[in-house]
Amino acid sequence: MSVIELKNANIYQRDKLILSNVNFSIERGEFVYLIGRTGSGKSSLLRTLYAELPTHDGMVYVAGYDLSEIRRRQIPYLRRKLGIVFQDFQLLDDRNVEANLEFVLRATGWYDKERISMRIDEALDKVGLRNKRKNMPYNLSGGERQGVAIARALLNNPDVIIADEPTGNLDPETALDVLKMLLRISDSGTAVLMATHNYGLIQKYPGRIIKCEDHKVICSVVE
Q1: How far is CA 147 from CA 87, 97, 105, 166, in A?
Q2: Rounded distance, CA 109 to CA 147, Å?
Q3: pLDDT of 58-106, one tens digit each?
Q4: pLDDT of residue 109
Q5: How far apart are CA 183 and CA 178, in angstroms?
Q6: Which pLDDT does position 56 carry in this prediction?
Q7: Which of 16, 60, 67, 115 makes the best surface tag, with the fewest CB within 10 Å?
Q8: Cβ(27)–Cβ(2) below 8 Å
Q9: Mean pLDDT of 8-32
Q10: CA 112: distance to chain centroid?
Q11: Cα separation of 88 and 169, whole Å?
């Protein structure tokens, strides 16, 4: 079953049509690149998928939710099935890695201290950063901070990771390390949709590409 599916969807920013007649699907465990020039609609598409922008036309299906019918009170439950990773990490600088991850778990209904601690270890293991559990974010490298952000996105075992330019602020070697983390995650069964301008990464690890161009989405390109 597809974890993301769009049929005849129009993507809007307020009243402005950004992308028209969008049709594509992403399966469980699939890794997909999202590319396009700045202003082509990539971020608007991603924001639609996690219900920050409303769905007006067509069908947008994400992690079991029809976003054309989703109610505001359901959006937090949708987002628990998504892991969202941003370019700027968005870590809380006043608390260590463990406390950053614990904050997310408690905010999403986790209460048992032992289960929280185990889940934090599991998520950090997946990105190779368990030994950084007690570090403050400002004592981590850029790649490590993005790794923590990816671990945070994995905490609730999401159906899909949505990554918006996750390597944009990183040097080439570190960007490649972050890409490898995301590829391992998709290999374990979690779908990954990664927006990027870094075509060097795509050349090193070719895969399926969805491209935003001229208010359209071109799908299933493999390079």
Answers
A1: 12, 11, 17, 10
A2: 23
A3: 999 999 999 999 999 999 899 989 999 988 888 999 999 999 999 999 9
A4: 86
A5: 9
A6: 85
A7: 16
A8: yes
A9: 94
A10: 27
A11: 7
Residue for token pair 């671990």: 151
Instruction: Name 160's bridge partners.
Output: 82, 191
Q: What is the mean pLDDT of the chain?
A: 92
> 157-168 pLDDT, tens per residue?
999 999 999 998
pLDDT of residue 192: 97
Q: What's the Cα-to-Cα distance from 193 to each of 25, 27, 125, 207, rounded to whole Å?
A: 11, 11, 21, 11
Measured at the CA of 142, the angle between CA 139 and CA 143, to 5 degrees, comes to 115
pLDDT digits (tens, 9 = 90+) for 113-149: 999 999 999 999 999 999 999 999 999 999 999 999 9
> Counting beta carbons within 10 angstroms of the beta carbon of residue 170, is it exposed (0 to 12), middle (13 to 18) or buried (19 or more)?
buried
Q: How many CA atoms lie within 13 A of 7 on its CB side?
A: 5
CATH of 29-52+72-210+217-222, one of 3.40.50.300, 3.20.20.80, 3.40.50.720, 2.60.40.10: 3.40.50.300
